[in-house]
Specification:
The complex is a heterodimer of chains A (193) and B (565). With 193 residues, chain A is an alpha/beta fold. Chain A has 7 helices and 6 strands; from the N terminus they run E-H-E-E-E-H-E-H-E-H-H-H-H. The chains are: A alpha/beta (193), B alpha/beta (565). Chains A and B meet through helix 1, strand 2, helix 2, strand 5 and helix 3 of A and strand 1, strand 7, helix 12 and helix 15 of B. Bound molecules: thiamine diphosphate and iron/sulfur cluster. The site of iron/sulfur cluster has 10 residues of chain B, from helix 22.
């Protein structure tokens, strides 16, 4: 088993939390893992990415070789396209469709969305809206985690437990909201893949 | 009683067996750690007594891990932030002097600040194990240059360890402390961003007790008067052959045989991983030498050089080994690497760059659509710096452009659109001193903008120069009550700025505290304008907390339920 994933978004959108949950689940599944994160300068509202690699064999490089990424998971639509050169010809593009506009020259969103939809293997969902409907806008990243989960080859319960583990100190209510967010993303992906 | 006396040894060994059994069980479990965190955990387990550091990407998480660690707390390990890297390095040296294991951590440019004690610590030597961690940033993800700390290690003539992965980072700390104590020498641990900020599973080792502490045999060792320093320096020179021997015997350096002798590959530190990534079965057809401990293992290099037609050198940083091999005239065998263009001269390595160097093809994905816009970092919404620079821009509109010297921190982002307020950012503390020089050259008024943490890092001495020089400069000390750029660490300046300025000799009537908020904009502009007109040293302190640390505090206080993961 080998999965190379790029997590993308804008500083502060919570991609490191997605990485932490998948990471915990993978380690508990006895897999090898490497995850290169971005800290520092680019976190101030700039573009951020994380390379997450899971494998049943020992992993050499912390960075995914270009053109071999299995999944791009993005919490922001334009950011999902920034890493296309990294995506394998049979990889999946999984993205939130709600733009995060903090630059004056953000491109026409319709152009961005049609570029995503032109991609043969894609899942595009409004994670923000789904999270809002569940009562927690801030769980949009967990909706995205749910949406990419069918492609991870990781058992559902490993992921659910990882969410519980990471959130255990924050109270049952928050755990429930996030597990619901996770399930909603998962359901969307199952119905649309 | 007699039975007890007879069997006491058996009993002890039984207790130890149980303890080790538990330890072993717990060691089977892997921790998911950043390279930085692996170093921190490695240090805690190797009997560390104190870690001294000033924050700096990508090194910050080493010290933060120790600060958060319950174990470190129980073991009473010192981990308060230092005012700058020089004070951190000297404090660590003091702990080593007193016989305990100490670590100093910094980003690569921090080693420039700590260079004086660092180079001299090679002459004094160490007593308790002393490791200096320097985290380099090839490709300048968050830095002003991509200098390679291995050159500092070579310059100081001390051993260097360069882990290729998180497990090695963990293991090298214990090795480094032991080696440091055995050879009575500080050891440099060099990492790069990619290892510092990448997570992997790490197995722990049995944790060690701290040293008891105590004096070294030679009480003159640390007095670098010329007569003593000459002797100490000769000692250092004499140790070089032992350092080299250790590199040749080190398990971190490995020669791996290969059939095809047309090429020999020398891969340093994490460059090894990029090499191996290109061979999914991990079998490289060429002989490979992995170097993770320096000085370079000369004999093994000689072997690979002699048996191969050409050599390819892979290093994530400057071409240190490549330059050594090539020599000034480059008359020997063909050496491929950054100097002959096989690999780009600047920037960090990755699997594809290494593939190209090996003449291998790699899959390419689609092009980035041309309408994708860049998304540079920017000041947070509501940031106090924004309101300060709006006021400064207006106050400066009466003068010609190019007068605002600045420094390093979040506020450096005011260089970008739409503010475009500042004209320099060189090294921490340089704003005040460059303003003095420019004022001496006739640029009056000259302005310096400097963050609170940067001010106590290295702005105070510059302020003293300004006061002694009676420079016509206006200094804005941007007090957001934290070290924001690196993630909100406690600032040494907290609650002390006015007293420091008064103590250094700034006149009381030319020190102003303002609140950077749009509703006070007019008043703030007026104060800045008045001080710009004053022909002496003025200090204005715009004070308002960073919104990120404020939010964090409030969230912790109210345990807001909507907190995201
Ligand atoms: C010698 C050196 N050490 C550390 C750093 C890393 N660094 C850059 S900015 C910064 C924090 C500055 O804090 P402050 O001056 O309070 O400004 P703020 O970010 O809070 O606006 C640090 C630690 C550096 N660039 N150079
Ligand atoms: S982290 Fe704080 S200081 Fe930095 S830009 Fe954001 S609000 Fe401003």
């Amino acid at each position: 088993m080998k999965k190379d994933i790029i997590l993308a978004g804008v500083g502060g959108q919570g991609i490191l939390s997605i990485a932490a949950i998948i990471g915990t689940a993978a380690i508990n599944a006895g897999l090898f893992l490497k995850q290169a994160e971005v800290h520092g300068m680019s976190q101030r509202g700039g573009d951020v990415q994380s390379h997450l690699r899971l494998s049943s064999e020992e992993i050499a490089s912390d960075l995914i070789p270009g053109g071999l990424t299995d999944l791009i998971v993005s919490v922001e639509p334009m950011e999902s396209l920034r890493y296309l050169p990294m995506l394998s010809p049979d990889g999946w593009l999984i993205t939130n469709t709600e733009p995060f506009v903090n630059i004056p020259n953000y491109p026409d969103i319709n152009k961005v969305i049609s570029e995503i939809e032109a991609f043969p293997r894609h899942i595009a969902l409004n994670a923000e809206q789904i999270a809002k409907d569940l009562g927690s806008v801030r769980s949009a990243n967990i909706v995205m985690l749910g949406a990419c989960s069918p492609f991870l080859d990781l058992d559902y319960y490993l992921l659910e437990n990882a969410i519980r583990n990471i959130l255990q100190n924050k109270g049952e209510e928050l755990v429930k909201i996030n597990i619901d967010a996770f399930k909603a993303g998962l359901k969307f992906a199952e119905e649309n893949k | 009683m007699e039975w007890f006396a007879k069997n006491i040894e058996k009993l002890i060994s039984f207790v130890n067996y149980i303890r080790n059994f538990n330890q072993n069980k717990f060691m089977e479990h892997k921790l998911l750690l950043l390279g930085d965190e692996a170093i921190a955990q490695g240090a805690i387990d190797a009997g560390l007594s104190g870690i001294y550091a000033y924050p700096g990407t990508p090194s910050t998480e080493i010290t933060e891990y120790v600060q958060r660690s319950k174990e470190a707390h129980e073991k009473n390990i010192s981990s308060e932030w230092s005012a700058n890297e020089k004070t951190a390095m000297e404090t660590a040296l003091g702990m080593s002097y007193a016989g305990k294991r100490a670590m100093a951590c910094m980003k690569h440019v921090g080693l420039n600040v700590a260079a004086d004690p660092f180079i001299n610590s090679a002459i004094t030597g160490a007593h308790g194990g002393l490791i200096v961690v320097s985290a380099d940033d090839p490709s300048m993800h968050s830095s002003q240059n991509e200098q390679d700390s291995r050159f500092y290690g070579k310059f100081a003539m001390i051993p260097i360890l360069e882990p290729s992965n998180q497990q090695e980072a963990y293991d090298m700390v214990n090795y480094g402390f032991n080696f440091s104590e055995k050879m009575k020498i500080p050891v440099l641990l060099r990492i790069t961003t990619r290892l510092a900020h990448s997570r992997a599973g790490v197995k722990r080792n049995i944790s060690k007790e701290q040293n008891k502490g105590g004096l070294h045999d030679n009480l003159k060792q640390f007095i670098l008067l010329p007569a003593i320093a000459r002797k100490q320096y000769k000692d250092l020179l004499n140790k070089q052959s032992e350092f080299e021997k250790a590199s040749e015997e080190s398990s971190f350096n490995k020669y791996i045989a290969g059939e095809d002798k047309k090429l020999g590959i020398i891969a340093c530190g994490i460059a090894n991983n990029y090499l191996m990534e290109n061979y999914p079965d991990r079998k490289v057809p060429y002989p490979v030498l992995k170097i993770c401990q320096y000085p370079v293992p000369k004999k093994i290099i000689e072997k690979i050089y002699d048996e191969c037609d050409e050599i390819l050198v892979l290093e994530d940083g400057y071409p240190l080994v490549e330059e050594l091999l090539k020599g000034l005239l480059g008359k020997g065998k063909k050496i491929k690497g950054r100097l002959d263009g096989t690999i780009p001269r600047d920037g960090e390595l990755n699997p594809n760059i290494v593939a190209t160097a090996l003449g291998k093809d790699f899959t390419k994905g689609k092009e980035i659509p041309e309408f994708i816009a860049g998304r540079p970092p920017s000041l947070c919404r509501g940031c106090s710096h924004n309101d300060t620079f709006l006021a400064l821009n207006e106050a400066m509109s009466d003068y010609s452009k190019g007068r605002v010297f600045s420094d390093i921190g979040c506020y450096t982002l005011s260089a970008l659109k739409p503010l475009e307020s500042i004209n320099s950012c060189v090294d921490m503390g340089a704003s005040i001193t460059m303003a003095i020089g420019a004022a001496d050259a006739g640029m009056i008024p000259a302005v310096a903008t400097i963050g609170d943490s940067t001010f106590t890092h290295s702005g105070i001495t510059g302020l003293l120069d300004a006061v002694n020089n009676k420079s016509p400069i206006t200094i804005l000390i941007l007090d957001n009550l934290t070290t924001a750029m690196t993630g909100g660490q406690k600032s040494s300046a907290f609650g002390k700025i006015e007293d420091i300025c008064l103590g250094v000799g700034v006149e009381k009537e030319h020190i102003h505290i303002i609140k950077p908020l749009i509703k006070y904009h007019e008043g703030n502009v007026k104060i800045i304008k008045e001080e710009l007109a004053y022909k002496g040293v003025s200090v204005i302190i715009p004070r308002r907390e960073c919104v990120q640390t404020l939010n964090k505090r409030m969230r912790a206080k109210h345990k807001i339920k909507t907190v995201s993961l």
